[in-house]
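re: that chain from earlier
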Amino acid sequence: MAIDHVLTDGRGPLLQTHDLTKAYGGLLVTDHVSLTLEAGARHAVLGPNGAGKSTLVGLLSGVVESDSGKIMLMGRDITRTASAARVRHGLVRTFQISNLFPRLTVLDNVLVAVCQRKGGSYRLLRSVSGHRDYLDSAEGVLEQLGLIDDRWKLAEELAYGRQRLLEMAIALSLHPKVLLLDEPAAGVPGSETGVIIDAMEKLPRDIAILTIEHDMNVVRRFATSVTILAAGRIMVSGAVHDIMASEDVRALYLGRSGHARFAKSSST
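^ sequence. v structure.
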């Protein structure tokens, strides 16, 4: 049963989908999905492989074109808006696999995004010293995410977990209103996951964040609400503690291994 789950903090919605639908041939991968995120939302989308999570993020970010339904960003219909324009309007996505400029420094990776937001030329910036505001903006984001001491390193020199932080810094430097995090802890060693979660918890509170995630420690610590997708449809949506405590969710969606994992997460 699809549920239009509203996360509210007293302000108007930042992102809404209405009956969003996508099929590939005869396979319906997104089945009338309706969601609403308001400012400050911390929402996780869970589901097994093939549930439609990646397609949903693709639809929201504009990488995938919907067959029907509507996507609204701060009251603006962006259903047919190109990805780059969605970024300019305030909807920014990170990727499951890091998407960086490996041979640029950490600072330069962020400066590219700052220049994109401000409408400046990155090539010109490197030869002109009169853009202190650009540098201050980039360094401020790196400071916020604990990457300032790495700013002169090449992106490829960072440990994978810190590359994910850099990707988050790039997204944040674009001043998003809605941030889509596509499995921010994917591939990150368990010893580094805490750093990712700490960074996520420090993100500005007025940003609505939707994260696709498999790591229940990330979900439990970061998200306040959860939507579970199954076969492209919303199976259930609600507060994290309610979802984790649901025997129906454990039995019908997660199976035995998931039951144990959820039970462990909800008891810690």
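The first helix runs from residue 53 to 61.
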